[in-house]
């Protein structure tokens, strides 16, 4: 069996046992409608979505920021971690993606708590900061990787002590550590990792993952005082 197939089979095994409700849920519907609308199949996997939800719950998150909505799949996982009066702001560049996401989020019953803002995140973030929102307890960065260092800087501005920043796709099949790879996305992720490793207000780590999303990984950073 190929490694890829093995990773998939183990992900299916875990998903069957740990996420048994998923098939008839608004989450499955969100993926189905995202597909039907031609969105790229790059949402987090179900097991990864559940990890994001658990992390948000462990944080006791009341305010969550997401950069990169796509069809709202990760948004729904994170949104379900919120208390009734919690809030999630998700930033999406592509109005077609945002439109699909808004429908998916409404079907999940999260439209009161979740707001999707359309436009380049680097334009939405300063506007958001101008509104002086309460600090975000969790920030999930999952948009254009070239801007990852900028997103890290904004995440630092919009969080406070104890907040958690999660950065997706830091491995990309191992390209992050290939010195010959100078793809702008890889450079962006390297710069974000350097920022986490060198910043006095961040304590971070990174984890490689295999599974339904092949070989990739997350970086996690906790905001210090
Ligand atoms: N978090 C989603 C997947 C996001 S895919 C999930 O796991 O379900 C990345 C998304 O980032 C895409 O929808 C893409 O349109 C969006 N994106 C790309 N560049 C962006 C930018 N500059 N600002 C905001 N969103 C951007
Ligand atoms: C891609 C983007 C993602 O956020 C992801 O999780 C996987 C793949 C991509 O652009 O290919
Ligand atoms: Mg991603």
UniProtKB/TrEMBL annotation:
<dbReference type="GO" id="GO:0032259">
    <property type="term" value="P:methylation"/>
</dbReference>
<dbReference type="InterPro" id="IPR002935">
    <property type="entry name" value="SAM_O-MeTrfase"/>
</dbReference>
<dbReference type="GO" id="GO:0008168">
    <property type="term" value="F:methyltransferase activity"/>
</dbReference>
<dbReference type="Pfam" id="PF01596">
    <property type="entry name" value="Methyltransf_3"/>
</dbReference>
<dbReference type="InterPro" id="IPR050362">
    <property type="entry name" value="Cation-dep_OMT"/>
</dbReference>
<dbReference type="InterPro" id="IPR029063">
    <property type="entry name" value="SAM-dependent_MTases_sf"/>
</dbReference>
<keyword id="KW-0489">Methyltransferase</keyword>
<protein>
    <submittedName>
        <fullName>O-methyltransferase</fullName>
        <ecNumber>2.1.1.-</ecNumber>
    </submittedName>
</protein>
<keyword id="KW-0949">S-adenosyl-L-methionine</keyword>
<keyword id="KW-0808">Transferase</keyword>
């Amino acid at each position: 069996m190929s490694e890829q197939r093995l990773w998939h089979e183990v992900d299916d095994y875990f998903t069957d046992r740990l996420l048994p409700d998923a098939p008839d849920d608004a989450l499955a519907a969100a993926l189905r409608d995202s597909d039907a609308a031609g969105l790229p199949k790059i949402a987090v996997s179900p097991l990864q979505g559940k990890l994001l939800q658990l992390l948000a719950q462990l944080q006791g998150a009341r305010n969550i920021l997401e950069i990169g909505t796509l069809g709202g799949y990760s948004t729904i996982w994170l949104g379900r971690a919120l208390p009734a009066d919690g809030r999630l702001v998700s930033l999406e560049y592509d109005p077609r993606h945002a439109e699909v996401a808004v429908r998916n989020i409404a079907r999940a019953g999260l439209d009161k708590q979740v707001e999707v803002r359309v436009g380049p995140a680097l334009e939405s973030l300063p506007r958001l900061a101008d509104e002086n929102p309460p600090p975000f307890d969790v920030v999930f960065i999952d948009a254009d990787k070239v801007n990852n260092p900028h997103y890290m800087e904004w995440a630092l501005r919009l969080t406070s002590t104890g907040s958690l920043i999660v950065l997706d796709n830091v491995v990309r099949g191992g390209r992050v550590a290939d010195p010959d790879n100078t793809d702008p996305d890889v450079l962006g992720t390297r710069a974000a990792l350097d920022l986490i490793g060198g910043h006095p207000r961040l304590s971070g780590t990174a984890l490689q993952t295999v599974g339904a999303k092949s070989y990739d990984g997350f970086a996690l950073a906790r905001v210090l005082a």
